[in-house]
Amino acid sequence: MKYLSIWCLITLFAFFSNTQAATFYVGDSTQCNQANHYDNLHLALLAANSNGSQADEIRLTNTVSYQGDTNGSYSIALSNAGHITIAGGYGNCGDPVNTTPPNIGNTADAVFEVKNNALVSLKNLKILGSDSRGIIVNENAALYLESVDVSDNVAGIRVLGGAYVELDENTTVFNNGHLDDIPKGGGIWCFGNNSEVTIAGKLGKK
């Protein structure tokens, strides 16, 4: 029994020591020189997944581009992570306050695909220029949009597979395709059992 008690204490200590919430920065400058700084969002997402905490935040600086097929398309299926927040508009690595939101997209694929029960918040971003969807949320994932602009994509947001999406009052989904080209809708298309969208923001078309 003593061995069991000691083992449990060691296991619990290891668990809590490896699940501290972390803040990661994405940037490419002389200021981006710490262990929690990465030069692209793909690497920062891998770090957050490995960290395994309940609430990590990835801060996108305006020192790098998030556009094009290599830099503008992200699949998020964080099997080990808790609630991941991706926030844009930081001037440089280490800055505590965000300002101008970055443009993310200009890609052939969806800009963000959130799936596999992932829990994600996107903040202060402009998601645009996808030849597919701006955002796809699937497989019981949950996505919260805060001050996000999803505009000028071939289609806007697709919600399926029991996923949940919430748009706050400062989020807009605007000018994303139309019914003539996309029979199931260009703005937000929600379907499938238990899929749900809550909208407090603006949904429109030019």
Describe the 3D structure:
With 206 residues, the chain is mainly beta. Helices cover 13% and strands 38% of the residues. It has helices at 2-17, 41-51; strands spanning 23-26, 37-38, 55-61, 66-67, 74-76, 83-90, 103-105, 112-114, 119-128, 133-137, 142-151, 155-159, 164-167, 172-174, 188-190, 196-199, 202-204. Strands 1, 2, 3, 4, 6, 7, 9, 11, 13, 14, 16 and 17 form a twelve-stranded parallel β-sheet that branches. A five-stranded parallel β-sheet has the order 5-8-10-12-15. The longest helix has 16 residues, at 2-17. The N and C termini lie far apart (70 Å).
The low-confidence parts are 1-17
- Assembly state of the chains shown: single chain
Summarize the main sheet: 12 strands, parallel
Provide the structure class.
mainly beta
Number of helices: 2
Number of strands: 17
> Per the principal axes of the C-alpha atoms, what is the gross shape?
globular
- Helical fraction equals 10-25%
Distance from first to last alpha carbon: 70 Å
Mean pLDDT: 89
Radius of gyration: 18 Å
Pattern of helices and strands: HEEHEEEEEEEEEEEEEEE
Strand content of the residues, in percent? 35-45%
Write the layout of secondary structure elements.
Elements: H1 2-17, E1 23-26, E2 37-38, H2 41-51, E3 55-61, E4 66-67, E5 74-76, E6 83-90, E7 103-105, E8 112-114, E9 119-128, E10 133-137, E11 142-151, E12 155-159, E13 164-167, E14 172-174, E15 188-190, E16 196-199, E17 202-204
Parallel strand pairs: 1-2, 1-3, 3-6, 4-7, 5-8, 6-9, 7-9, 8-10, 9-11, 10-12, 11-13, 11-14, 12-15, 13-16, 14-17
